[in-house]
């Protein structure tokens, strides 16, 4: 429907331009018949007139002749978008014989807006060629011939310059539209990357808890009904939360992002949520020793606090997967202006026990996340322990 409406509007506009051009051609024709030229005519056919009683000469034949040519020439403008160069050449050549210069200027304008600069230059040169020829062969040379030549040159130049100007505006508009689409895609890509990091941190931790509890139920055949109930509650809660997180990420990935669109972000964890995180891991039997020495934990910037939370969460996830049943020590210390330091240490397990698989992308994501907030992160084995240390900014 919208395309059909646009097509009808374009046809009506072309018809209106053709009618207006025909009227201008007739006007220019009568002006030139009275010695007022706006574009050189290299040939002027002698047209018959009709006399009444031999006294009054009525240019009926001339009117019919010029009007027919004006309508026929201007009617070609209805196809100027499809064949702009051919229509322009026909009308320019015809303008050297009859007064079709208004229609030729419209066609020349269309060439400038639709075709390359080289094609526009060739057609413009063709339109300017009659000017020096007319001036050179004008007999006798006169100020009227010079004025006609100058007027024709100004009209041709104006049509070409205006067409190039509008073409430039259109190209800049298209470029801006392409840039906007590119920026929107970049924003979406960054949001996907950030979402991937968040989902890795959250889902990996929840699935590791689920696996630990399920493994405990499998190994501990003598568990009391209360222990089984607690473990099943944690498994059910972790699975439910994991499903909600997956639904959230799928919803974001399926929804096309529009420029200047900002969807509300879900609440992000901070250091205030750290006790709940540690409690979840302690329920699996993990021994966690937290040493927190912060001047004012509530004053830690949200971005820094969220990054610290994710670092502890990923370290606990790795401990669940690669060092089960090993104690974990967490040190948090910092002051405004000096920064926030996060250290997580756990002994490495004895070999011979199958461990949960891991790709190492979690620590890579943490390194990137830490760098984005202006901090540094190191992780690796030190002797018989695994050590994670992060230095995060805490402005005064």
Largest sheet: 5 strands, mixed
Instruction: Please bin the fraction of helical residues.
Output: 55-70%
Overall residue-averaged pLDDT value: 77
> What proportion strand?
5-15%
Unreliable runs: 47-58, 259-264
What is the terminal-to-terminal distance? 61 Å
By DSSP, the count of extended strands is: 7
Task: Please specify the SSE layout and strand pairing.
Blueprint (H helix, E strand, L loop, with lengths): L1 H32 L16 E3 L3 E3 L1 H16 L8 H12 L5 H14 L2 H12 L1 H8 L5 H77 L5 H30 L19 H9 L5 E7 L7 H21 L5 E8 L3 E9 L13 H12 L3 E7 L2 E8 L4
Parallel strand pairs: 3-4
Antiparallel strand pairs: 1-2, 4-5, 5-7, 6-7
Helix pairs in contact: 1-2, 1-4, 3-4, 3-5, 4-7, 5-7, 6-7, 7-8, 7-10, 10-11
What does this structure look like?
The protein is an alpha+beta fold and 396 residues long. The chain has two domains: 2-179, no CATH class; 270-396, Histidine kinase-like ATPase, C-terminal domain (Heat Shock Protein 90, 2-Layer Sandwich), CATH 3.30.565. 61% of the residues lie in helices and 11% in strands. It has helices spanning 2-33, 60-75, 84-95, 101-114, 117-128, 130-137, 143-219, 225-254, 274-282, 302-322, 361-372, and strands at residues 50-52, 56-58, 288-294, 328-335, 339-347, 376-382, 385-392. The strands form two sheets. Strands 3-4-5-7-6 form a five-stranded mixed beta sheet. Helix 3 (84-95) packs parallel to helix 5 (117-128). The two termini are 61 Å apart.
